[in-house]
Amino acid sequence: MTEATVLKAATIMEPIxxxxxxxxxxxxxxxxxxxxxxxxxxxxxxxxxxxxxxRNLEAHVIDEPPHLLGDDTAxxxxxxxxxxxxxxxxxxxxxxxxxxxxxxxxxxxxxxGDINVTAVWGVGDLDPMKKLGFTDVRVKVHxxxxxxxxxxxxxxAHANAWSPVANTLRNPVNLSVDLA
Length: 180
Fold this sequence. Notes:
The protein is of the alpha+beta class and 180 residues long. It has five helices and five strands. It is globular and about 50 Å long.
């Protein structure tokens, strides 16, 4: 499905289940220190084409564009980070709109990030002062619904503040990578 197809089809947004959302919220309030472990397995298929398996879903494909020696069959890992951030914020916008009784007709996010790629995965410019990863990420939210502009701005700020992915990008996280 192309972006144009999605945009044409999205004239009226089907809301998520408000009762189910209320039940999830109550569960979270009952056990606020609950932590779950999410798992994924990534397998390199060939060249830079990787298949990531989550739960029992079809493989999520990650590749690199030709200028980074890939076959351009899927988003690259950094583009996938932007996609994941956009989806996480979108989910938060939709959930909070439903919780507040706001009927949305449009949720669209434009994301862009600045990243220095000259280290070439550790085989290029290895200046120890080089900052790796995104240095800046910008998200523009296009949101429409039966709410005032101020209510929509508050909705965006709230979804941003409580987005697990946005906070993963903002906050230090313990990460270990070891040979199995």
